[in-house]
Inverse folding.
């Protein structure tokens, strides 16, 4: 009986055919608008780099860009501090408890971002639960609604799953026998954590931090509802340029700056992750 040879050529063609709808959606609804908006930033009002010269010479634009980066860094740090112990708990608990913790992390995805933002408006009111809790521990006078503090809190809650999931996946690959070996060599729990566990979890930290930071750079809904016009971020600034000022070229220049920043971050993070994997690894299979 003669075996039929697999149709590898047709198999490859079928794979590309299956990818075609997704590629078409990305090209039509993302790549084409980005290219057109970027082109306008170089062509209007006249060809050249005038929009970028104006952008980096305008104090308002520089202030908003700086504020956006600072808020994105704060959100990244807050989500990391909250997510690391939670992800560690997920990595050491029984499968049923881990499934429950994962369910709690994914639960916010089942509700609208707009609904969650309005919920934070209620929570961050001057007489809301958060303000009452802060006053109970002696922290009074901290502005929440309409401030960067409130925006950071709300954004951290929204972006928490994007930090927890990479961290938990990275921690699940760490061989805990390495900690036992460190204990047997006389290391304390803190020293074993700092010298062994923390370095092995850095790939997850890097992946989560990059995800959260990049998503924070382009956030619009939460800063728009919880923040104030005086503390606007880049997303609100772009929306103002497009909807109010009809400055599509200026909005395109801001978008290109964000896109370039994102690409640089991804390249740096990718290089850092490759370096960590080549020098350590920390998986159970090593």
């Amino acid at each position: 009986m003669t075996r039929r040879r697999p149709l590898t050529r047709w198999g490859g063609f079928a794979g590309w055919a299956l990818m075609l709808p997704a590629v078409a959606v990305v090209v039509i609804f993302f790549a084409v608008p980005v290219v057109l908006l970027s082109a306008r930033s170089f062509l209007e009002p006249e060809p050249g780099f005038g929009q970028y010269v104006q952008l980096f010479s305008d104090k308002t634009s520089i202030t908003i860009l700086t504020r956006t980066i600072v808020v994105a860094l704060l959100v990244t740090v807050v989500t990391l501090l909250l997510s690391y112990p939670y992800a560690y708990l997920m990595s050491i608990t029984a499968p049923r408890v881990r499934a429950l913790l994962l369910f709690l992390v994914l639960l916010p995805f089942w509700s609208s971002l707009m609904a969650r933002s309005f919920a934070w408006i209620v929570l961050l009111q001057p007489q809301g639960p958060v303000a009452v809790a802060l006053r109970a521990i002696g922290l009074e006078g901290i502005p929440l609604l309409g401030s960067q503090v409130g925006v950071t809190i709300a954004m951290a809650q929204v972006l928490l799953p994007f930090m927890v999931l990479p961290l938990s996946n990275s921690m699940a690959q760490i061989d805990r026998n390495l900690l036992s070996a460190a204990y047997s060599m006389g290391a304390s729990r803190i020293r074993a954590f700092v010298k062994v566990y923390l370095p092995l979890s850095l790939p997850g930290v890097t992946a989560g931090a990059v995800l959260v930071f990049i998503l924070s750079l382009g956030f619009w809904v939460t800063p728009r509802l919880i923040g104030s016009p005086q503390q606007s971020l880049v997303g609100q600034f772009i929306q103002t340029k497009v909807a109010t000022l009809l400055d599509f070229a200026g909005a395109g220049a801001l978008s290109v700056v964000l896109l370039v920043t994102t690409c640089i971050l991804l390249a740096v993070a990718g290089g850092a992750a490759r370096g960590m994997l080549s020098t350590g690894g920390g998986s159970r299979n090593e």
Summary: Residues 220 and 235 are 5 Å apart (CA to CA). DSSP finds twelve helices and no strands in the chain.
